[in-house]
Write a structure and sequence with these properties.
Oligomer: single chain
Strand order of the largest sheet: 1-2
Number of helices: 3
Number of strands: 2
């Protein structure tokens, strides 16, 4: 959820816990009561927040699933965000 536990430090802590427990996958969820697609600022916050987390997950070879809690449009936007982040960093 944008604005709540969405800093890089928070994400790294989750990844550290997952690695220590040898967890290989996480299901990402969001507040489904918020209509992100109707507000450009909210969708940008959502995509940036979740996209940064996905980027870190990929760096640590942790699988993720967004199919349940994210719309098709949000998943597409996340894919673009993460692809750009990966291309920029390498």
């Amino acid at each position: 959820m944008p604005g709540l536990n969405d800093s890089l430090q928070d994400y790294r802590a989750v990844i550290e816990i997952m690695e220590s427990l040898k967890l290989k996958e996480i299901i990402l969820a969001r507040d489904v009561s918020v209509e992100y697609l109707t507000n450009d600022k909210k969708i940008e916050e959502l995509i940036s927040s979740v996209g940064n987390f996905i980027y870190l997950l990929l760096e640590h070879n942790i699988n993720f699933n967004t199919a349940i809690f994210f719309t098709k449009e949000e998943r597409a936007a996340l894919g673009i965000f993460v692809d750009e982040a990966l291309n920029t960093s390498h």
